[in-house]
Amino acid sequence: MQRFFTEHLLHSQQTVTLEPAIAKHAIKVLRYDVGAVFELADPKHRVYQATVQTTDPLTVEIGPEITKNVELPIAVEVVCGVSKGDKAEWIVQKATELGAAKIGFFNAQWGTARWPAERIAKKMDRLATIAQNAAEQSHRNLVPEVTMYAKLSDVGVDAAVKLVAYEESAKQGEHAALVSALTPHPASLCVVFGPEGGISPAELALLRAHGFTPAGLGPRILRTETAPLYLLSAVSVLTELA
Known about the structure:
The chain is an alpha/beta fold. The protein contains 7 helices and 11 strands. The protein has a 6-stranded parallel beta sheet, sandwiched between helices. Strands 1-3-4-5-2 form a 5-stranded mixed beta sheet. Helix 2 runs parallel beside helix 3 (117-137). The longest helix is centred in the middle third of the chain and has 21 residues, at 117-137. The radius of gyration is 20 Å and the shape is elongated.
């Protein structure tokens, strides 16, 4: 069943006129008519069944709450160095599907690409749309926040546990930091990933000074767009399937 995210706070037996963007997709693309049923998630991460009452404008009657929660038991933020091409779009889409609560980016010292200040707002709008579409497709209870960090020192300020994926740790056979970080399960986890050029020594020193622990992600060296997805998959296995 299709899921949409609305800015309205919902409750059962309520009639709501939905946003134009939802109406356009529901009526023009999905061809919903009166009586069609879909799911609506609100800003408090509650999900309800909704039944179309009128199509122009699109009004729905809110039905029973759907209590199934598909969110990870840990609020995970992945923060990635800006990479070339469309890797940011790929990371946002797949990280959303895998349960990230927040997705951040930063211009890294050794990055092969940088986002100039005048392009960041437009880039964030584009990535936020990708996150919302992916959250709808994967039936998330929330849409992860997507943000750009001006300073690396601003990353993970409120996180309970902080890691930095560091390939030198992987090369040296370090494999305990991630598992230890999740035992017992913390309320939140922030993990930083470098771009294609990796994390610089200065960035590593800064992150260490702010409470980040270097961690390897297995014995293989992962691409910058693969590492966050490995991390989120590992968190899911260790907290949801173990």
